[in-house]
Amino acid sequence: MELRIVVAPVFGTNCCVVSAGTDCVVVDAGAGVADAVVRLVDDAGLTPRAVLATHGHADHTWDAGALCARYGIPMRLHEADAYRLDEPFATLSPALESALGLHRDDYRAPEVVEPFATPGGSTTLTFGAVTLHALHAPGHTEGSTLYRLDDEVVLSGDVLFAGSIGRTDLHGGSDRVMGETLRDVVRVLDPGLAVVPGHGPATTVAQELGTNPFLAAGRG
């Protein structure tokens, strides 16, 4: 599979276009990425099959509705975060809503939303030639999800960053649950995996296991 990244102008969200052959999916369609994604997809001769989100916060889903409508494709995210798509600001603090610089009247919710479950903590999602392994990783939000691409890359959303982790103080977040996710999901990932977080630079699982203070603190 091939991975291309478009950085959103709002909060620098890493929007990932994952392709295999001519099929592709878009992960984390943040605010302001739609036009760039369309250009990328058209120039590469790709056919989008779905828009996915690592979680339901507005800075990861804002342009999903526009892309879903353009290509006639569904929105897919963990069932525990699906409720966030109806009102993207309802679970954000007023300060964060202001910081996003977005306006409610400009939001277009995806018309077709197909939530997925993760029985046993994970599931496999297939879209044409594209296959992703979804790992439930709550703590930042109830439905936060890691997407593993083959045995090479994991898209970590706002669960894991280079040198840090996602905040747990917003609606649906939990410091306790995040700790469990770091212990039971993140720390058991293959150290050879590259990590593309929801914001900021890429890293590797090995790098974070060795230097990330939030992972080191949980070692027994």
Automatic annotation (TrEMBL):
Keyword Hydrolase annotated: yes
Domain Metallo-beta-lactamase: 12-199
InterPro entries assigned to the protein according to its UniProt record, in alphabetical order: MBL_Glyoxalase_II, Metallo-B-lactamas, RibonucZ/Hydroxyglut_hydro
SMART domains assigned to the protein according to its UniProt record, in alphabetical order: Lactamase_B (SM00849)
Keywords: Hydrolase, Metal-binding, Zinc
Reported cofactor(s): Zn(2+)
PANTHER family, A to Z: HYDROXYACYLGLUTATHIONE HYDROLASE GLOC
Protein name listed in UniProt: MBL fold metallo-hydrolase
